[in-house]
Amino acid sequence: MLSIKKHIPNAITCLNLFSGCIGVVFAFQHNLLFGAYALFLAAIFDFFDGFAARLLKAYSAIGKELDSLADMVSFGLLPAVIVYQLFLQAPQIDGVSQYLNYIAFLISVFSALRLANFNIDTRQAEIFIGLPTPANAILIASFPLILQQHNSFYTAYILNPFFLACFVLIMCSLLVAEIPLMSLKFKGTDVKENIYRYLLILIAVILLVFFKFAAVPMVIFVYIAISIFQFKFTK
Q1: What is the DSSP letter of 77?
Q2: Spatial CB neighbours of 95, under 8 Å, sequence gap ≥ 6
Q3: How far apart are CA 74 and CA 20, in angstroms?
Q4: Cβ pair 79, 141 in contact under 8 A
Q5: I want to staple 49 with a disulfide (CB 3.0 to 4.6 A). Which of 6, 12, 99, 121 is the partner?
Q6: Which residues, including other chains, have CB under 8 Å from residue 153's CB and lie 6 or more apart?
Q7: Per-residue pLDDT tens for 190-230?
Q8: Domain-by-domain residue ranges, the chain?
Q9: H helix and E strand count, the chain
Q10: Which stretches does DSSP call E strand in 57-179?
């Protein structure tokens, strides 16, 4: 029984990886909506593998490495492929787009750097340094869902090659930036200890009600803003 329990978190991590692989297939087949769904499913598995490890006290060295390898596919490669396909859907710039479109895969490169650094950075036991790869990937996965809202304002930006290029550079910078960001793991039930987490959840719910999937990028940047305020202006 004990030997089975210790493999449960790793099995969930493998489901994360499997979801990411399926999502890559969907994305390359131009089915970005199902690619986004696969990424969200991978994010759910990514949450529950850590939850299961804590619940079952089934920590292992291989589990930590396996988690990063799975995240590299689900939150490094898959979002890069989604952005690449968005570049292809955007108006092509003669003599430029044939090279510019490949900038999307910088997301994979910087996600790899982020994940590798996370595994050796002892400062990140309680907080994050730089934007976590799942947060960046979820933001990107929201784009196909936002396009489904058929709002011309959002579409004009998401399918603009210059916007996409700037977006990629900004997000790559945030992945490796020396910015402390709060962990979303609650410390007990004490409101004072978790005030910023509760604030983020409240703002996220309000934004989602009013803006639906378009709220996801807003929530990510509110998360960054609240974290900066927490670490820079409070003890």
Answers
A1: I
A2: none
A3: 4
A4: yes
A5: 12
A6: none
A7: 677 788 888 999 999 999 999 999 999 999 999 999 998 88
A8: 2-178
A9: 12, 2
A10: 127-129
